[in-house]
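Predict structure. Chain length: 129.
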Amino acid sequence: MCVELDADFFYLIRSFAERSGLSAEYVNRGMDALAQAKVSHPVVVFFEVDHPSQHPAWNVLEGLKADPVTRDIPVVLFSWLEDEQLALQKGADVFVRKPVMFADFLGALTTAGVCTGTNSMDVINNKRR
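Prediction complete.
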């Protein structure tokens, strides 16, 4: 699930996801992500935070991690900002500083526990719900 990514960045992440054996679902508004995650149980949630004042994104991240239904879903946060500590404090499982290459994407999935990095398709397929 991709939350509040700009269109170009969503296209990039979707292509990386599909190349990794995942499908990518776009959720435009952060608050919709909370409800959608409860229904679709995504393998991973991708967030993009590029402005220090994006409080709604931080609120959604905290909401995902506070809810017993969604708290175990790994969250990968992408940003130009150097807010790794804040992202991890708010509940992100992985912080990736932009620009993002395919190897960074796979590394994030590996760190989040979604794939092993060596045979990602098997692990990803086993984690799908």
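Summary: The CA atoms of residues 110 and 117 lie 6 Å apart.
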